[in-house]
Design brief:
There is one protein chain. The protein is mostly helical and 439 residues long. The chain contains 18 helices and 12 strands. The chain has a 3-stranded parallel beta sheet with strand order 1-2-3. Strand 9, helix 5 and strand 10 form a beta-alpha-beta unit. Helix 4 crosses helix 5, helix 7 crosses helix 9 and helix 16 runs parallel beside helix 17. It is elongated. The N and C termini lie far apart (79 Å). The structure holds one RNA strand of 75 nucleotides.
Length: 439
Amino acid sequence: MTLDSIRVRFAPSPTGYLHVGGARTALFNWLFARQSGGKFLLRIEDTDRERSSDEHTQVIRDGLTWLGLDWDEDIVFQGAGIERHQGLADDLLAQGHAYEDDGAVRFRMPHEEIAWEDAVGGHISFQGSDIQDWIILRSDRTPTYNFTVVADDADMRISHVIRGADHISNTPKQIAVFRALGQEPPVFAHVPMIHGQDGRKLSKRHGATAVGDYQNLGILPQALRNFLALLGWNPKDEREVFADINELIQAFSLADVQRKSAIFDLAKLEWMNGQYLSQTPVDQLLPLVEPEMKRLGLDPASVPHDKLIKAIDINRERARTTMDIAERAAVRLDASFIKQDDEKAKNLIAKDPDGFYSSLEATHQLLSGLNHSAWEPGRLENELRGLAESLGLGPGKIFQPIRVAITGTTVSEGIHILLDVVGREESLARIKSVLDGRT
RNA sequence: GCCCCCAUCGUCUAGCGGUAAGGACACCACUCUUUCAAGGUGGUGACAGGGGUUCGACUCCCCUUGGGGGCGCCA
């Protein structure tokens, strides 16, 4: 087979969302095609009219596009081939490969061994006699899935069928049809399934299972793509983060795809997303964070642009999702986004209320004495250090109350940076408000 | 019930007859620091069980157990 005759396809049914398992299957197909210089085709399995719709198809296209998986040639809609499918079924009927049964057309399974060399799973073998004759044309003349798949894969000259392992037991049926049709079956590659934390097939009850869910969570497409590639495949060296997609394309190999199903680990995805986040410059992050801020209820256009940029940049390295960044930025830009229920913050106060408030009081006095020109990170740091020293306190005793007063949490960037980002008036107002609110 | 696939740390994995069983996430400790996070360093942690084959098995074979998938006029 010449390289340019390599043709693979991703064939989802348009059920309303793009499952991450499907997305990974698409990714493996795409990587294989791009690496070999072959074609990656998209076919929509829309034969089940009641469950299909144009919007559902659009969701799949959007998901693939978001992930950067571009397809070649026109999208094939399976439903469009119904007459050809019927004709093929009639041929099989005429040749004795199928027979009529209650008005439907049933395929006659040959009673012989049906085996293939799976590009992932190795040698796999079934006995045809273990598989019942099955319907290829319903009594209303509509073709069934396992039959249309073969007809379309043959028609599209698919060379490699890369799909989920849940199709393994369909494969002997499909091989038998290829043979009855006088066609050479393609190479099959069955990639393992993705499971949820409970070890079961990843489904809606596991929470986020659609590509769009992760998009909403604030995951970057490059990160999801990288994570998915590593679920069931590895490059045989210690590489984990592939900053350049071409590196991934070159490294990919079907032979190195795992045969064991994998459990989807959200923590690792978030870690990987954090890796990408800290590598992404602010100007590229801005268009992703802005919509998240709007969803939180803060209009990014209502705050000074340089302040917005600073608030995002400061939190880029610490955050794991763009949602994280949006939340942290919002807190720095608008006091109404400060959360009042942070356990660690409440504990800090409760542990030593007098120390907390007196330190904050001293801080307020000091800071309100600084004018605008003095309000810059270096100066702030010096002043606050000096204060701690003169009070005979560890610096943490001074800084942590400020952090809590300004962000509502015990976690943030360096305190002088934080004060600078939030600004003089706002910082003082937040500290004052905490002092006034003492109960 | 029948058929098929699978089995290394909690999770993702490397290993392809002789290794102190390696890496990553998570976790813990230490460090850095101004707190937290991030970063850095280190640590806890695995070959499901039983038979073979072999001088020698995580690696090969068989059985058991466990897990998954499939057995529709669904896709």
